[in-house]
Amino acid sequence: MSLRPTPRGWALLAAAVVTFQLGVWLGSIDLVRIGLLLTALVVTALLVALLRDPARGRRRLDVVRSVAPNPVHAGEETQVRVEVVASDGAGRARLAGLRLAEQAAVELSGGRPLRARVARTPDRVTVRYPVRAAQRGRWPLGPLVVTRTDVFGVVRARSTLGGESEVAVWPAVSALPAPADVLVGEPDRVALGARTPSTDDANLRDYREGDDLRRVHWRSSARRGALLVRSDERAGLRPVSVLVDLPVRSSAAEWTVSMAASMALAMLDGGHRVRLVGSAVGARPQDGLRGGATPFLHATAGTGARAGLLDLTVDLEAPRNQQEADARLLDAAHLLDTSDAAGQIVLAVLGPASHAARGALAHIGDATQGWALVRGDGRGLDANEAHHTAQALRRAGWRVAAAEAGEDPVACWLRLLGAGR
């Protein structure tokens, strides 16, 4: 808490000093008393303001802050409601003279003062205001800043009230058309998850994370004492892994996350089990920056699956340099190559890849259906490396389409669906 005299308070202090010195010089006890009285007035106001701090004591004011919707997509608006409540007469007296100001991260306020509607009752102050989420991430709201003056207007006290709240911001996403019956070349295979019949459902294997429980062979599982599933990976809808390769540039990173999230949601809505892979996916920033993978999510979980998938994108951070970006992509490619990805669909949003990463990704294409958007920025060496990456993936059997950061996600998606080997 900060305490400062107001201009009136400074004037009283100046008058007190002058009056006291004048009284001493003239030998006037009355003037000395007046100077001391004026000084005592300001000091008493300071002490009272300190003792009546609304954030301290047994009769402190309570703050309740709610944000709806929360999380919110980047570029969308959310409404904030803050209530300051007094529970007794002393609290109501404190509440009456308060001026309230809310604090918000620049990513929510745009760096401008928040414009709020305030409603007051004797025991409650309600503040409502909108914020627009400008960027993916987790951003703080609060605490409240309260300002009050004493009854004589000689002291101004400023303090914080209540704690912080957090607004989680999902990436902006686009509604992509659901892929259906997009042929990949061989007459008996259908890309992007169209149903293909199983030739022999009698072959069984151990259950793996992400397998559809509808494929569990319960009789054999009971006999073995462990879950067994039909081994034909093409029975039903194939699982989908969405590979996210974040660039160093933050603007391109946000487009990459939005594109990958849109693709993942399209596949999830189509009935697939979906997971995210790469760029420290599934790890908190303090846990390190290596490539990872999330558990598979399935639309049978309802709207919670969409929210769960988007939650996984909130904390993704761009690499600090190109070496780190290359290491992340290589780790993610190796993870896909060693995680029973055979028969899966791999959707990737990639930048120009190193020679080692291109080799690892090419190996994945031998066992999966690979579809990649290769991001380029149209400049010199990066554009050349993006071209080499696309060519290497095509030679390995991937479907590849070029894309530019900031391009319309729907146009990129349709271009990818129409891509050939």
From TrEMBL:
It comes from the Bacteria. InterPro entries: DUF58. Keywords: Membrane, Transmembrane, Transmembrane helix. Residues 204-279 form the DUF58 domain. The chain crosses the membrane at residues 9-28, 34-51. Pfam families: DUF58. This is Uncharacterized protein (DUF58 family).
